[in-house]
Every structure is written in structure tokens, then in C-alpha cells.
Amino acid sequence: MAEELNNVTVAFLVATEGAEQVELTEPWKSIEACGGKPVLVSTDAGTVQAFDHLDKADTFPVDRTLEDARIADFDALVLPGGVANPDFLRASAPAVRFVRGFFEAGKPVAAICHAPWTLIEADVVRGRTLTSFPSIKTDVINAGGNWVDEEVVTCRGGDSVLITSRKPDDLPAFNAAIVAEFAHSRVPG
Prior knowledge:
There is one protein chain. The chain is α/β, with parallel strands linked by helices. It has 6 helices and 12 strands. The chain has helices at residues 21-33, 84-90, 93-104, 116-121, 137-142, 171-182; strands at 9-14, 17-20, 37-42, 47-52, 55-61, 64-65, 76-79, 109-112, 129-130, 146-147, 152-155, 162-165. The chain is globular, with a radius of gyration of 15 Å.
């Protein structure tokens, strides 16, 4: 990837368990490969348990808890999917506030697979075009979003950019889109 992400810090928000591992690790590697700094943020300290669909995969150390994470410290946000991960996050008031804060600050947000469930809870999909895992299409529509069946969607409506993809097969397009967008998103301060 030709984009440079020097001095770009990206929060990856996941619950303590349930994140789809490849949707965490592949975007993470893309950010690092371009010189960016990914930071694992979670609801609790310690480690997070990732999954390969329904099977436990690897664990990853938490860099910051939501209690210690400040939106001002980050240039962008990535929300990996998995079924359980966004379900846990949407039930966490601090996680929902954190997600909404990126939109309020005008910083780009990327979400893949079931992760738009957290966006729905944060009430940030209304009037936006996005995609997701097909099983939550109705949830997106009911929250006022315009759901489309595409491998990656970059929506520039509103104050911040929203990048979404459907599933792990879409990761190459998702990673290219987030790197390209995040390279131009450095917010001074």
C-alpha cells in the first residue's frame, strides 16, 4: 500500500471476547504496515479473546480501557465484527459514548460485519449509506440507514467519514479503504 500513516493513531474497539480475529488482525496489520499506530481499546483491562467464527482463537493484550481512552488521542476508529463483540459493545454505555464521540469529533470510523450494531446503538447511521453482514440489514434500515450490498462503502455524509464492509472476504477492499482514508484524516492537536 502506497499510503503513509505516520503519526496516525487508530483505536480498535473490541469487547473482552467475541471479536472476529481476522477482522481485528488484518486491518491492524494494514495500519502498521503503513506506519500507523493501532491501539487496542476494550471495556476492561487484561486481554481480549478473539474468535474464528464460533471457535476461540487467540488472545490479545488490551492497550487501554475505555475508562482511560480519550477520543482526542486518536485519529480514527476501527470496529471489528464478530457476532458477540458488537452485541456486548452496544450494551456498554461507555463503548457507545466512545463510538458516538468519534462522529461528533469528525473523525473517520470503519466498521465491518456485525459491527454496525454498535453504530446503530450510538445513533449514527441515520441518513448514511453503509453495508454490513446481510443478517443485520433490517436493523440498519430500521435505524434510518441506507443499506447496500457492496464489499466496501465509504460514506462521506455527515461530519465524519464512515467506511463499512460486509464480511471477512471483503477485508482486502476494507483495508485499502481505511488506509486511504486514514492517511488523510490526521486531526491536528
